[in-house]
Specification:
Endonuclease III, domain 1
């Protein structure tokens, strides 16, 4: 419980940034191609870290990666990669940075082929949010058959840092899955 006395999911801490993320973004359906790409790239950057760490650096990531514009990211060369590796405001992991560049190409390929990155991703939940009714955070899975399928399909298209656990976290964050626990005011 926070100062405002609203019950939230147990993973939320007392930082107003985290509270706002939980209350206004997490679990809310997102259909914008560009925003979904950004979110998927940030989830990949999270691998081995906490989402809270990424959230605190999100604005730095947006600036460093040119708003996660796939067309711009595709033009990144060795100089830009080194600039990113020297940017203390982001996660400085060469494989993750190179993964974002590779993923930009896959994003453009998917968009060209299907007409919509959002439509492609949402197809893994048949276009409709899955609403779970967990009573505690302990019940929430780390992955599901839908996230397994998404991960496999994205990897087949050449994407990096899109394992099933990352895909499930992405599905939760983008509202493809609503995993707000029953005691959370957002589950109502």
């Amino acid at each position: 419980m926070t100062v405002d006395h609203l019950n939230r999911c147990a993973w939320v801490n007392s930082d107003p940034l985290y509270i706002a993320y939980h209350d206004e973004e997490w679990g809310r359906p997102l259909y914008d191609d560009q925003k979904l790409f950004e979110l998927l790239m940030l989830e990949g950057m999270q691998a081995g870290l906490s989402w809270y760490t990424i959230l605190k650096k999100r604005e730095n990531f947006l600036e460093a990666f040119d708003g996660f514009s796939p067309h711009t990211i595709l033009k990144y060369g060795p100089d830009k990669i080194e600039e990113l590796m020297n940017n203390a405001g982001i996660i400085r992991n060469r494989l993750k940075i190179q993964g974002v560049i590779k993923n930009a190409q896959a994003y453009l390929d998917i968009t060209e082929e299907t007409g919509s990155f959002a439509g492609y991703l949402w197809s893994f939940v048949d276009g409709t949010p899955i609403v779970n009714r967990w009573t505690s955070i302990a019940e929430v899975p780390a992955s599901t058959p839908a996230s397994d399928a998404m991960s496999k399909a994205l990897k087949k298209r050449g994407m990096k840092f899109v394992g099933s656990t990352i895909c499930y976290a992405f599905m939760q964050a983008s509202g493809m899955v609503n995993d707000h626990t029953q005691d959370c005011f957002c589950s109502k």
